[in-house]
């Protein structure tokens, strides 16, 4: 831009000198035409410079926006990594809890083998001298005076069922696992 300004000043000085020294009309017209041409080029260049400056500002704004997006992307990746680690730790804790619950259930079931339940009244029948000989998640095998029978835990009278399984714990476990 500085060069254009100098060129314009030189052109103006040449016209002024021509007027002062008294150059002929052809030379004067030629200098004026050249000056007008330079003035038009300067305007065009100024317009182009303005457009370039405007584009530069837009490009700088885009660069800033890209930097912001990249920073947010980096933060999101860190957060995703943290969430993945938390999920892994949580899954590990759940697996451990389920393992402990299963061990507890197995130990509880094993401890009930040989348990005497006394007299049971089920479906209008009376079963005497009952003893647990096998217990799993769904059924119990009872030995009694008339032989052995397998019963669904859900079909047993509530007091006996509560003795064989700890229902609140089982319900809580079902909520944890599901």
Which ranges are low-confidence, i.e. pLDDT below 50, for 5 or more consecutive residues? none
What class would the helix/strand composition place it in?
A: alpha+beta
Radius of gyration: 49 Å
Strand order, biggest sheet? 1-2-3-4
> In what range is the share of β-strand residues?
15-25%
Q: Could you give a quick summary of the protein structure above?
A:
This protein is of the alpha+beta class. It contains 4 helices and 4 strands.
Characterization of this structure:
The chain is an alpha+beta fold and 178 residues long. It has a domain at 113-177. It has four helices and four strands; from the N terminus they run H-H-E-E-E-E-H-H. The protein has helices at 2-21, 25-112, 158-164, 167-177; strands at 116-122, 125-135, 139-144, 147-152. Strands 1-2-3-4 form a four-stranded antiparallel β-sheet. Strand 1 (116-122) and strand 2 form a beta hairpin. The relative contact order is 0.06. The model has no long low-confidence stretch (mean pLDDT 84).
């Amino acid at each position: 831009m500085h060069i254009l300004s100098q060129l314009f000043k030189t052109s103006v000085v040449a016209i002024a000198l021509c007027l002062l020294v008294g150059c002929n009309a052809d030379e004067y017209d030629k200098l004026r035409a050249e000056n007008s041409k330079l003035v038009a080029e300067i305007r065009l260049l100024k317009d182009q410079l303005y457009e370039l400056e405007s584009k530069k500002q837009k490009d700088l704004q885009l660069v800033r926006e890209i930097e912001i997006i990249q920073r947010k992307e980096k933060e999101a990746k860190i957060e995703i990594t943290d969430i993945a680690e938390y999920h892994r730790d949580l899954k590990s804790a759940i697996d451990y809890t389920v393992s402990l619950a299963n061990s507890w259930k197995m130990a509880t079931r094993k401890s009930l083998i040989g348990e005497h339940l006394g007299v049971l009244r089920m479906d209008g029948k009376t079963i005497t001298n009952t003893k647990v000989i096998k217990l799993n998640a769904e059924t119990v095998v009872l030995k009694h005076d008339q032989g052995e029978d397998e019963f669904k835990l859900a079909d047993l009278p509530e007091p006996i069922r509560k003795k064989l399984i700890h229902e609140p714990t089982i319900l809580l476990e079902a909520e944890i696992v599901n």
